[in-house]
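Researcher: We're teaching a course module on how sequence relates to structure. For the next exercise, students receive a sequence and then see the predicted structure as tokens, so they can try to spot secondary structure elements on their own. Here is the exercise chain.
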Amino acid sequence: MNKKSIRDIDIENKTVFVREDLNVPLDNEGNITDETRIILSLPTIDYLIKNSAKIILASHLGRPKGKFVEKLKMDPVAIALGKHLNKEIKKMDYVISDKVKNEVKDLKSGDILLLENLRFDQREKSNDDNFSRELAELADIYVNDAFGTSHRKHASMVGICKYIPSVMGLLLEKELRTLSSLLKKPKHPFVAILGGSKISDKIGVVRNLLNVVDTVIAGGGMCYTFLKSIGFEIGNSLLEEEMLEYCKQVLDEFKDKGKKFMLPEDVVVAKEFKHDSILKTVNIEEIPEDWLGLDIGSGTIDKYKEEILKAKTILWNGPMGVFEWESFEKGTKEIAYAVIESKAKTVVGGGDTIAAVKKYRVADKISYITTGGGASLKFLEGVKLPAVEALNNK
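Model: And here is the predicted structure for the students to work with:
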């Protein structure tokens, strides 16, 4: 948090290049199905308008792999932004062109120009220096408000910062402050709920949280590698064999520090990985050889809820099971209800976890939902984010 923000600089009548994360989900017809990222970008844009800046907005959308893809144009984003801001958004058909440069020159204070999808240009992801310079030449000041891609070393995230003054937007600032508070001054008991498919995605987070959490609650596919590491047979459940020794070390480290690492006592297992598969609940000692675990069991849910309700701080990243299927959603659903029933400060991250709290209509009762899946995990691992490091210090 020693980085400058837009509050620390004079932006009046300046042309400001704002890198937002407007990578919204689209349906097959190209309609936006969730405007959350657009809504979260508004405070920074409003601040710039009120302080008489000339605004260039830029973002990626989808995965065009450096080529033009008609259905990934930024047009629907421009329409949605205009609706929320009650203001005309001038949408360009290119990222860099003579027409773009001329439109930028004609901007007046409070005007907004939206560039085309940054990832239509293959130089974006390669952090090409010439592309970075071309982007920088459009503006006087650069603002990073895209926390969700701040772990990426791309031209519009890192390279551009070499050429013009570069600061945080309000959303990036809020994300960093919230996640920093979890690592530096959480209220105790601090409970981390970790699920999802792979322990390899979260092992760095687990190791870094060892110093600050009181309890880790494990679920999802990742818990089976932990169970296997301490001698349980897990049938056909998800297993990362190369992580077994690492998981055993982590469990030993938690025990040595006198902290809890809670694993399921019972699980819902299925004959096949299908939404309508034959299923049953078994103790972890009794997982059948050819079955696989797809949710935590009722006994485990009760134990986990008891721990959650005692917490003062909760971090949740990763569902407890295959919550997209009704037969295997109970664990995730009950944990979601327990999280909002607690009196804790609650922070939720990760695409699947956010989808779950929205599905169960509890998102508005979560203290903070982080926009960065991969970025938030990297930050919680203690890894420095390249796009944050590139910004100007105070």
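Model: If you want an answer key for the exercise: Residues 6-172 form a domain with the Rossmann fold fold (CATH 3.40.50.1260). The CA atoms of residues 177 and 391 lie 16 Å apart.
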